[in-house]
Amino acid sequence: MTQTKKFNTHPPxxxxxxxxxxxxxxxxxxxxxxxILSRADYFADLEISKIKKNLQGFVILNVFFENSTRTRVxxxxxxKRLGAEVINISVNKxxxxxxxxxxxxxxxxxxxxxxxxxxxxxxSGAPKLFSEYLNCSIVNAGDGRHEHPTQALLDAxxxxxxxxxxxxxxxxxxxxxxxxxxxxxxxxxxxTLGVEVRCIAPxxxxxxxxxxxGVSCFDNLNDxxxxxxxxxxxxxxxxxxxGTETPSxxxxxxxxxxxxxxxxxxxxxxVIMHPxxxxxxxxxxxxxxxxxxxxxxxxxxxxxxxxxxxxxxALHGNKF
Length: 320
Ligand code: NCD
Prior knowledge:
- The chain has twelve helices and nine strands.
- The protein is of the alpha/beta class.
- The strands form two sheets. Strands 7-6-5-8-9 form a five-stranded parallel sheet.
- Helix 2 (30-45) crosses helix 6 (149-163) and helix 6 packs across helix 12 (297-317).
- The longest helix has 21 residues, at 297-317.
- The radius of gyration is 19 Å and the shape is globular.
- The model has no long low-confidence stretch (mean pLDDT 93).
Protein backbone atom coordinates (compact mmCIF):
# COMPACT_ATOMS: atom_id res chain seq x y z
CA MET A 1 0.00 0.00 0.00
CA THR A 2 1.22 3.46 -0.86
CA GLN A 3 1.26 4.96 2.64
CA THR A 4 3.58 2.39 4.25
CA LYS A 5 6.80 4.31 3.71
CA LYS A 6 5.42 7.63 4.85
CA PHE A 7 4.22 6.28 8.20
CA ASN A 8 7.12 3.93 8.84
CA THR A 9 9.49 6.88 8.91
CA HIS A 10 7.24 9.22 10.92
CA PRO A 11 4.60 7.29 12.85
CA PRO A 12 1.73 9.49 14.08
CA UNK A 13 1.48 9.85 17.87
CA UNK A 14 -0.75 7.64 20.02
CA UNK A 15 -4.35 8.82 19.58
CA UNK A 16 -5.35 11.52 22.05
CA UNK A 17 -8.67 10.97 23.82
CA UNK A 18 -10.18 13.38 26.33
CA UNK A 19 -12.07 10.68 28.23
CA UNK A 20 -11.04 7.33 29.68
CA UNK A 21 -14.18 5.84 28.07
CA UNK A 22 -15.32 5.54 24.46
CA UNK A 23 -19.10 5.58 24.82
CA UNK A 24 -20.26 7.56 21.81
CA UNK A 25 -19.14 9.61 18.83
CA UNK A 26 -21.62 12.32 19.87
CA UNK A 27 -19.64 14.75 21.96
CA UNK A 28 -16.24 13.73 20.59
CA UNK A 29 -14.07 16.55 19.30
CA UNK A 30 -13.04 16.49 15.65
CA UNK A 31 -9.37 16.31 16.70
CA UNK A 32 -9.97 13.20 18.82
CA UNK A 33 -11.61 11.48 15.86
CA UNK A 34 -8.80 12.52 13.51
CA UNK A 35 -6.12 11.36 15.94
CA ILE A 36 -7.64 7.86 16.14
CA LEU A 37 -7.99 7.73 12.36
CA SER A 38 -4.40 8.71 11.70
CA ARG A 39 -2.98 6.28 14.26
CA ALA A 40 -5.26 3.48 12.94
CA ASP A 41 -4.15 4.28 9.40
CA TYR A 42 -0.58 3.69 10.53
CA PHE A 43 -1.48 0.34 12.13
CA ALA A 44 -3.38 -0.72 9.00
CA ASP A 45 -0.11 -0.54 7.06
CA LEU A 46 2.17 -1.96 9.73
CA GLU A 47 3.25 -5.61 9.56
CA ILE A 48 1.66 -7.48 12.47
CA SER A 49 5.09 -8.61 13.74
CA LYS A 50 6.16 -4.95 14.02
CA ILE A 51 3.35 -3.95 16.41
CA LYS A 52 4.95 -3.44 19.83
CA LYS A 53 3.45 -5.69 22.49
CA ASN A 54 3.64 -3.00 25.17
CA LEU A 55 0.39 -3.88 26.95
CA GLN A 56 1.58 -6.91 28.91
CA GLY A 57 -0.47 -7.38 32.08
CA PHE A 58 -3.19 -5.05 30.72
CA VAL A 59 -6.53 -6.86 31.14
CA ILE A 60 -9.36 -6.45 28.64
CA LEU A 61 -12.74 -8.07 29.27
CA ASN A 62 -14.86 -8.54 26.16
CA VAL A 63 -18.42 -8.71 27.51
CA PHE A 64 -21.03 -9.28 24.83
CA PHE A 65 -24.68 -9.50 25.86
CA GLU A 66 -25.67 -9.74 22.17
CA ASN A 67 -24.32 -11.82 19.32
CA SER A 68 -21.34 -10.57 17.41
CA THR A 69 -18.73 -12.01 15.09
CA ARG A 70 -16.74 -9.15 13.55
CA THR A 71 -16.75 -6.75 16.47
CA ARG A 72 -15.91 -9.24 19.21
CA VAL A 73 -13.17 -10.99 17.27
CA UNK A 74 -11.57 -7.75 16.10
CA UNK A 75 -11.44 -6.32 19.64
CA UNK A 76 -9.86 -9.59 20.76
CA UNK A 77 -7.30 -9.54 17.94
CA UNK A 78 -6.54 -5.87 18.57
CA UNK A 79 -5.88 -6.45 22.28
CA LYS A 80 -3.71 -9.51 21.62
CA ARG A 81 -1.67 -7.73 18.95
CA LEU A 82 -0.77 -5.14 21.60
CA GLY A 83 0.22 -7.89 24.06
CA ALA A 84 -2.78 -7.44 26.38
CA GLU A 85 -4.62 -10.25 28.15
CA VAL A 86 -8.09 -10.58 26.57
CA ILE A 87 -10.88 -12.53 28.21
CA ASN A 88 -14.19 -13.18 26.45
CA ILE A 89 -17.22 -13.48 28.71
CA SER A 90 -19.85 -15.65 27.12
CA VAL A 91 -23.25 -14.30 28.08
CA ASN A 92 -25.11 -17.53 27.41
CA LYS A 93 -23.15 -19.20 30.18
CA UNK A 94 -23.10 -16.20 32.49
CA UNK A 95 -25.31 -15.29 35.41
CA UNK A 96 -27.37 -12.83 33.34
CA UNK A 97 -29.37 -15.80 32.13
CA UNK A 98 -29.96 -16.64 35.77
CA UNK A 99 -31.49 -13.22 36.46
CA UNK A 100 -28.54 -11.24 37.83
CA UNK A 101 -29.09 -7.46 37.53
CA UNK A 102 -26.85 -5.31 35.38
CA UNK A 103 -25.35 -3.67 38.46
CA UNK A 104 -24.60 -7.00 40.13
CA UNK A 105 -22.90 -8.05 36.91
CA UNK A 106 -20.94 -4.78 36.89
CA UNK A 107 -19.76 -5.42 40.44
CA UNK A 108 -18.73 -8.98 39.64
CA UNK A 109 -16.76 -7.83 36.61
CA UNK A 110 -15.18 -5.05 38.64
CA UNK A 111 -13.87 -7.57 41.16
CA UNK A 112 -11.74 -9.03 38.35
CA UNK A 113 -9.89 -5.69 38.13
CA UNK A 114 -9.97 -5.25 34.38
CA UNK A 115 -8.28 -2.25 32.73
CA UNK A 116 -10.83 -2.07 29.91
CA UNK A 117 -14.32 -3.48 29.56
CA UNK A 118 -15.62 -3.78 26.00
CA UNK A 119 -19.42 -3.95 26.24
CA UNK A 120 -22.13 -4.81 23.76
CA UNK A 121 -25.66 -4.71 25.15
CA UNK A 122 -29.22 -4.66 23.75
CA UNK A 123 -30.18 -1.71 25.99
CA SER A 124 -29.12 1.83 25.00
CA GLY A 125 -27.11 3.33 27.85
CA ALA A 126 -25.82 0.08 29.41
CA PRO A 127 -22.11 0.92 28.72
CA LYS A 128 -22.65 4.38 30.27
CA LEU A 129 -24.15 2.75 33.37
CA PHE A 130 -21.07 0.51 33.64
CA SER A 131 -18.84 3.60 33.32
CA GLU A 132 -20.57 5.13 36.35
CA TYR A 133 -20.00 2.10 38.60
CA LEU A 134 -16.63 0.71 37.51
CA ASN A 135 -13.16 2.20 37.75
CA CYS A 136 -11.88 0.84 34.43
CA SER A 137 -12.27 2.24 30.91
CA ILE A 138 -15.47 1.27 29.12
CA VAL A 139 -15.71 0.91 25.35
CA ASN A 140 -19.18 0.78 23.83
CA ALA A 141 -19.23 -2.03 21.26
CA GLY A 142 -22.87 -1.28 20.36
CA ASP A 143 -25.75 -0.46 22.73
CA GLY A 144 -29.31 -0.92 21.54
CA ARG A 145 -30.28 1.69 18.96
CA HIS A 146 -27.91 4.23 20.50
CA GLU A 147 -24.29 4.13 19.24
CA HIS A 148 -21.50 1.93 17.93
CA PRO A 149 -18.53 4.31 17.95
CA THR A 150 -15.75 2.01 16.72
CA GLN A 151 -17.91 0.98 13.75
CA ALA A 152 -18.19 4.62 12.64
CA LEU A 153 -14.44 5.08 13.12
CA LEU A 154 -13.62 2.03 11.01
CA ASP A 155 -16.08 3.17 8.35
CA ALA A 156 -14.38 6.57 8.23
CA UNK A 157 -10.92 5.00 7.98
CA UNK A 158 -12.13 2.79 5.12
CA UNK A 159 -13.53 5.82 3.26
CA UNK A 160 -10.38 7.89 3.84
CA UNK A 161 -8.08 5.15 2.55
CA UNK A 162 -10.22 4.36 -0.48
CA UNK A 163 -11.44 7.82 -1.52
CA UNK A 164 -8.45 9.81 -0.21
CA UNK A 165 -10.50 12.22 1.92
CA UNK A 166 -13.65 12.52 4.01
CA UNK A 167 -14.46 16.25 4.15
CA UNK A 168 -16.71 17.47 1.34
CA UNK A 169 -17.99 14.02 0.34
CA UNK A 170 -21.66 13.15 -0.14
CA UNK A 171 -22.52 9.95 1.74
CA UNK A 172 -25.88 8.16 1.77
CA UNK A 173 -26.93 5.89 4.63
CA UNK A 174 -29.74 3.61 3.53
CA UNK A 175 -32.00 1.17 5.36
CA UNK A 176 -33.30 0.65 8.86
CA UNK A 177 -32.06 3.98 10.25
CA UNK A 178 -34.54 3.96 13.16
CA UNK A 179 -33.08 0.83 14.74
CA UNK A 180 -29.45 1.40 13.81
CA UNK A 181 -26.72 2.39 16.24
CA UNK A 182 -24.31 2.26 13.27
CA UNK A 183 -26.30 4.98 11.49
CA UNK A 184 -26.39 7.18 14.59
CA UNK A 185 -22.62 6.98 15.20
CA UNK A 186 -21.91 7.54 11.52
CA UNK A 187 -24.19 10.57 11.37
CA UNK A 188 -22.33 12.19 14.28
CA UNK A 189 -18.90 11.33 12.92
CA UNK A 190 -19.50 12.24 9.28
CA UNK A 191 -21.23 15.55 10.02
CA THR A 192 -18.39 16.45 12.44
CA LEU A 193 -15.89 15.84 9.62
CA GLY A 194 -17.78 17.97 7.07
CA VAL A 195 -19.65 15.32 5.05
CA GLU A 196 -23.04 15.96 3.40
CA VAL A 197 -25.04 13.08 4.89
CA ARG A 198 -28.28 11.80 3.33
CA CYS A 199 -30.42 9.27 5.15
CA ILE A 200 -32.72 7.02 3.13
CA ALA A 201 -35.39 4.82 4.73
CA PRO A 202 -39.04 3.84 4.42
CA UNK A 203 -41.06 6.36 6.48
CA UNK A 204 -41.70 3.71 9.17
CA UNK A 205 -37.93 3.23 9.66
CA UNK A 206 -36.93 6.91 9.67
CA UNK A 207 -36.67 8.63 13.08
CA UNK A 208 -38.71 11.85 13.33
CA UNK A 209 -36.01 14.16 14.64
CA UNK A 210 -33.22 13.18 12.29
CA UNK A 211 -32.88 16.44 10.35
CA UNK A 212 -31.95 18.19 13.59
CA UNK A 213 -28.67 16.24 13.41
CA GLY A 214 -27.73 18.11 10.22
CA VAL A 215 -28.64 15.46 7.64
CA SER A 216 -31.20 15.38 4.83
CA CYS A 217 -33.84 12.65 4.74
CA PHE A 218 -35.28 10.77 1.76
CA ASP A 219 -37.87 8.04 1.46
CA ASN A 220 -36.88 7.44 -2.16
CA LEU A 221 -33.57 5.65 -2.75
CA ASN A 222 -33.10 7.00 -6.25
CA ASP A 223 -33.30 10.60 -4.98
CA UNK A 224 -31.15 9.92 -1.95
CA UNK A 225 -28.18 8.31 -3.70
CA UNK A 226 -27.91 10.85 -6.54
CA UNK A 227 -24.22 11.79 -6.96
CA UNK A 228 -23.23 10.08 -3.69
CA UNK A 229 -19.58 9.13 -3.23
CA UNK A 230 -20.37 6.30 -0.84
CA UNK A 231 -23.51 4.36 0.03
CA UNK A 232 -23.73 2.67 3.43
CA UNK A 233 -26.37 -0.04 3.59
CA UNK A 234 -27.98 -1.23 6.80
CA UNK A 235 -29.62 -4.49 7.78
CA UNK A 236 -33.30 -4.65 8.70
CA UNK A 237 -32.86 -5.13 12.43
CA UNK A 238 -35.94 -7.26 12.98
CA UNK A 239 -34.89 -8.04 16.55
CA UNK A 240 -35.60 -4.39 17.45
CA UNK A 241 -38.94 -4.10 15.60
CA UNK A 242 -42.47 -4.77 16.72
CA GLY A 243 -43.23 -6.48 13.41
CA THR A 244 -45.31 -3.94 11.52
CA GLU A 245 -42.58 -1.57 10.32
CA THR A 246 -41.55 -3.24 7.05
CA PRO A 247 -43.17 -4.63 3.96
CA SER A 248 -42.10 -8.09 2.75
CA UNK A 249 -38.37 -8.56 2.09
CA UNK A 250 -39.15 -8.80 -1.63
CA UNK A 251 -40.94 -5.45 -1.60
CA UNK A 252 -38.19 -3.89 0.53
CA UNK A 253 -35.56 -5.03 -1.98
CA UNK A 254 -37.57 -3.57 -4.84
CA UNK A 255 -37.60 -0.08 -3.30
CA UNK A 256 -34.57 0.04 -1.02
CA UNK A 257 -32.24 -2.79 -2.04
CA UNK A 258 -29.17 -1.54 -3.91
CA UNK A 259 -28.49 -3.17 -7.26
CA UNK A 260 -26.37 -2.26 -10.31
CA UNK A 261 -29.14 -0.26 -11.97
CA UNK A 262 -29.87 1.96 -8.97
CA UNK A 263 -26.14 2.40 -8.35
CA UNK A 264 -25.82 4.14 -11.74
CA UNK A 265 -27.51 7.18 -10.17
CA UNK A 266 -24.67 7.65 -7.71
CA UNK A 267 -21.26 9.12 -8.50
CA UNK A 268 -19.58 6.92 -11.16
CA UNK A 269 -16.87 5.96 -8.63
CA UNK A 270 -19.23 5.48 -5.69
CA VAL A 271 -18.28 2.78 -3.20
CA ILE A 272 -20.62 0.51 -1.26
CA MET A 273 -20.35 -0.28 2.43
CA HIS A 274 -22.17 -2.49 4.91
CA PRO A 275 -21.34 -3.08 8.59
CA UNK A 276 -22.49 -6.71 8.36
CA UNK A 277 -24.11 -9.07 8.84
CA UNK A 278 -25.70 -8.47 5.43
CA UNK A 279 -28.74 -10.04 3.86
CA UNK A 280 -28.08 -10.62 0.19
CA UNK A 281 -31.13 -9.92 -1.93
CA UNK A 282 -32.73 -7.79 0.81
CA UNK A 283 -30.60 -4.65 1.29
CA UNK A 284 -27.99 -5.43 -1.37
CA UNK A 285 -27.75 -7.42 -4.60
CA UNK A 286 -25.42 -10.36 -4.08
CA UNK A 287 -23.40 -9.44 -7.18
CA UNK A 288 -22.75 -5.93 -5.80
CA UNK A 289 -21.68 -7.25 -2.40
CA UNK A 290 -19.01 -9.33 -4.17
CA UNK A 291 -17.98 -6.63 -6.65
CA UNK A 292 -14.37 -5.95 -5.59
CA UNK A 293 -14.27 -2.65 -7.50
CA UNK A 294 -17.20 -1.12 -5.66
CA UNK A 295 -17.72 -3.02 -2.43
CA UNK A 296 -15.57 -2.11 0.60
CA UNK A 297 -17.22 -4.63 2.89
CA UNK A 298 -14.10 -6.77 3.39
CA UNK A 299 -11.91 -3.71 3.82
CA UNK A 300 -14.26 -2.49 6.59
CA UNK A 301 -13.57 -5.68 8.54
CA UNK A 302 -9.82 -5.25 8.08
CA UNK A 303 -9.94 -1.61 9.21
CA UNK A 304 -11.91 -2.68 12.28
CA UNK A 305 -8.82 -4.30 13.77
CA UNK A 306 -6.64 -1.23 13.09
CA UNK A 307 -9.17 1.17 14.65
CA UNK A 308 -9.52 -1.03 17.74
CA UNK A 309 -5.74 -1.27 18.15
CA UNK A 310 -5.52 2.54 18.05
CA UNK A 311 -8.39 2.83 20.55
CA UNK A 312 -7.07 0.32 23.09
CA UNK A 313 -3.58 1.77 22.81
CA ALA A 314 -4.96 5.26 23.54
CA LEU A 315 -6.92 4.06 26.59
CA HIS A 316 -3.73 2.46 27.89
CA GLY A 317 -1.34 5.28 27.02
CA ASN A 318 -3.31 8.46 27.76
CA LYS A 319 -3.25 9.96 31.27
CA PHE A 320 -6.84 10.67 32.31
C1 NCD B 1 -23.90 -3.99 13.49
C2 NCD B 1 -24.31 -3.96 14.94
O1 NCD B 1 -24.26 -4.96 15.62
O2 NCD B 1 -24.69 -2.90 15.34
N1 NCD B 1 -22.95 -4.92 13.12
C3 NCD B 1 -21.63 -4.81 13.49
O3 NCD B 1 -21.28 -4.41 14.57
N2 NCD B 1 -20.72 -5.14 12.56
C4 NCD B 1 -25.03 -3.88 12.57
C5 NCD B 1 -26.10 -4.91 12.57
O4 NCD B 1 -26.21 -5.74 13.46
O5 NCD B 1 -26.88 -4.90 11.62
